[in-house]
Design a protein that fits this description.
CATH topology of the largest domain in chain B: Jelly Rolls
Number of domains of chain A: 2
Low-confidence stretches of chain A: 186-198
Strand content of chain B: 25-35%
Structural class of chain B: alpha+beta
Shape of chain A: elongated
Largest sheet of chain A: none
CATH class of the largest domain in chain B: Mainly Beta
Order of helices and strands of chain B: HHHHHHEEEEEEEEEEEEHEHEEHEE
Oligomer: heterodimer
Mean pLDDT of chain B: 84
CATH architecture of the largest domain in chain A: Orthogonal Bundle
CATH superfamily of the largest domain in chain A: RNA polymerase sigma factor, region 2, helix turn helix motif
Order of helices and strands of chain A: HHHHHHHHH
CATH architecture of the largest domain in chain B: Sandwich
Radius of gyration of chain B: 49 Å
Number of strands of chain B: 17
Number of helices of chain A: 9
CATH class of the largest domain in chain A: Mainly Alpha
Strand content of chain A: under 5%
Low-confidence stretches of chain B: none
């Protein structure tokens, strides 16, 4: 997030055909991409093949990828699109909306948390019940936001949703999320608008 | 920096990158900072702790990590694909260069073909060599030694037939005129020399353009001579010979025998009281010799007779006999020496 310059230099090296820079990009991104892919489809061979195809595509198209500014969000977006296309092709049918037909695994386990008070334990149980109601998309947002530390602008780009769409998605889920996260509707909308204005 | 956090509610903490990094445990700096912040017991500590619990819950999902060998395994597959791609790219580039080369070759061939259609034909005889040619209209030309003839590869359908001569040639021109109508352009046949045009109507004739003199001998048919210097014209009848000095451009009939003039065509040198100086000129023109004469009195001797010239050694042998001289030859230099 703060290493924009490093990203730019590293990516320039990849674009110019530097194999060591290419491996550096791969090695630092592999665990994240692996986890992200596995959360879509719990099939290691499938996910690894997707990551392989992604990087081969990056190498063969490197001459046209000069406008990549931040590597991590770009790779996440590309892997997501690739997996989506593979699933669609495998099912031999057209899916207009990915979330109509995809899963995103994110199971919360509050029992691992250190409980300070009994009231907390009670609250956690109700929170988990609410969290279990989250849609795959909402889970994906949480994963990208909190597990990967990405901002909302990155998330809208990765998930290929417009800010308007993100707002709609957020608004729909806000009743759930607000209760769990304590996020206010106004806070989320302001946040999205701030990003849109950039 | 800490000031702003005093106004934070739970939602604000949940949107703060530094706070997320702290709960995540990904940034030692953030962990140190928030540790100190909590120890300061701020008024909104409860909001912060509530946010922390929520975030911990959100982050409580079991992480999915590849076993330690997976990154290397997948990388080797990627490297294999990438190396193969680079190899194929090099082969494709090589093929591309090959097809570019093929395209250039095709262009050259096309250009060559175009050149073939539009260019000129050039014929040059070496010394001692004559050449029989058939023109596109089936007219026949015999080109004498050391001469050059040029004409267009493709003759225009509605223009005159034209050839350019430097040297000496004998023409037997195909008569295209089959009617009594006025002459059409395509029926004309013109021989251009440097200083004279000879226009022809179905004719056999000899042109010699050498040493500043242009000489035309008509064997049959009709020709019109046109001096390019004086614009003077002259029509010849069969058997007539005309010559022109290329300095003055003046055309005049001369009393030469046409059959003697064209005898070269039959590989004969017909000498009808021919002066030795003329024979020497002829040998120089047709065989590229340089001839030196020790005794200049022989130059005015006249010779009568026929020498077969198919073999150039023949001529020199015959001449040495007639003139009673010794002939020395060093490459193209020939010296006529007196016998002692």
């Amino acid at each position: 997030m703060y290493a924009i310059t490093d990203d730019t230099l590293l990516w320039e090296a990849v674009v110019s055909g530097d194999e060591r820079a290419f491996e550096e990009v791969y090695q630092s991104a592999f665990p994240t991409l692996y986890e992200y892919g596995m959360r879509f489809i719990r099939d290691e061979a499938f996910v690894e093949e997707s990551i392989q195809q992604l990087f081969v595509k990056v190498w063969t198209n490197k001459a046209t990828l000069t406008n990549v500014r931040r590597i991590r969000p770009y790779l996440l977006f590309s892997l997501r699109t690739l997996i989506y296309n593979k699933i669609r092709d495998a099912k031999r049918k057209r899916i207009s909306e990915l979330d109509a037909d995809y899963d995103f695994e994110l199971e919360f386990s509050p029992e691992s948390l250190l409980i300070r008070k009994e009231t907390d334990a009670e609250r956690l149980r109700s929170l988990q019940a609410a969290l279990d109601q989250l849609t795959p998309r909402q889970k994906e947002i949480i994963f990208l936001r909190y597990y990967q530390g990405l901002d909302y602008k990155d998330i809208t780009e990765i998930m290929d949703i417009s800010l308007k769409g993100a707002y709609k998605l957020t608004a729909r889920s806000l009743d759930t999320l607000r209760g769990i996260l304590g996020l206010s509707v106004v806070a989320v909308i302001l946040l999205l608008k701030t990003h849109a204005a950039k | 920096m800490s000031e702003q956090y005093l106004n934070y509610g739970k939602a604000d903490f949940l949107e703060d990158a530094s706070f997320i990094a702290y709960v995540n445990g990904t940034s030692p700096a953030a962990m140190a900072f928030w540790g100190r912040w909590k120890a300061g017991r701020p008024a909104n500590l409860e909001e912060m702790l509530s946010a922390e619990t929520t975030l911990k819950l959100l982050l409580s999902a079991r992480r999915i990590s590849p076993t330690s060998d997976r990154a290397g395994v997948v990388w080797n597959r990627i490297l294999g694909d990438v190396r193969q791609y680079d190899l194929q790219l090099r082969i494709r580039r090589r093929r591309m260069y090959a097809s570019a080369a093929a395209a250039i070759l095709l262009l050259l061939v096309a250009t060559g073909w175009w050149h073939l259609r539009t260019g000129n034909r050039n014929y040059q005889t070496r010394y001692g060599q004559t050449m029989a040619l058939v023109l596109p209209d089936h007219s026949q030309v015999t080109l004498n030694a050391g001469s050059h003839l040029k004409y267009a590869k493709v003759w225009p359908k509605d223009g005159p037939r034209e050839v350019w001569l430097d040297g000496e040639a004998y023409f037997d021109v195909t008569h295209l005129k089959q009617d009594t109508l006025p002459l059409k352009p395509s029926e004309r046949f013109i021989v251009h020399t440097q200083s004279m045009d000879v226009e022809v109507l179905g004719t056999t004739f000899n042109i010699k353009d050498r040493r500043g003199m242009t000489q035309v001998g008509l064997y049959s048919g009709a020709v019109i001579l046109r001096s390019l210097i004086t614009q003077q014209s002259m029509q010849l009848i069969p058997g007539e010979v005309a010559s022109m000095n290329q300095q003055t451009g003046q055309l005049q009939r001369v009393s030469e025998d046409v059959s003697t003039i064209i005898s070269w065509k039959d590989h004969q040198l017909v000498m009808n009281k021919m002066k030795v100086s003329d024979i020497i000129q002829l040998l120089e023109d047709n065989y590229g010799y340089h001839i030196q004469v020790e005794d200049s009195t022989i130059l005015n001797k006249q010779i009568q007779g026929v020498i077969p010239v198919k073999n150039e050694g023949n001529i020199l042998f015959v001449l040495s006999g007639i003139l009673q001289i010794n002939i020395e030859r060093k490459d193209s230099l020939i010296i006529f020496k007196q016998r002692n």
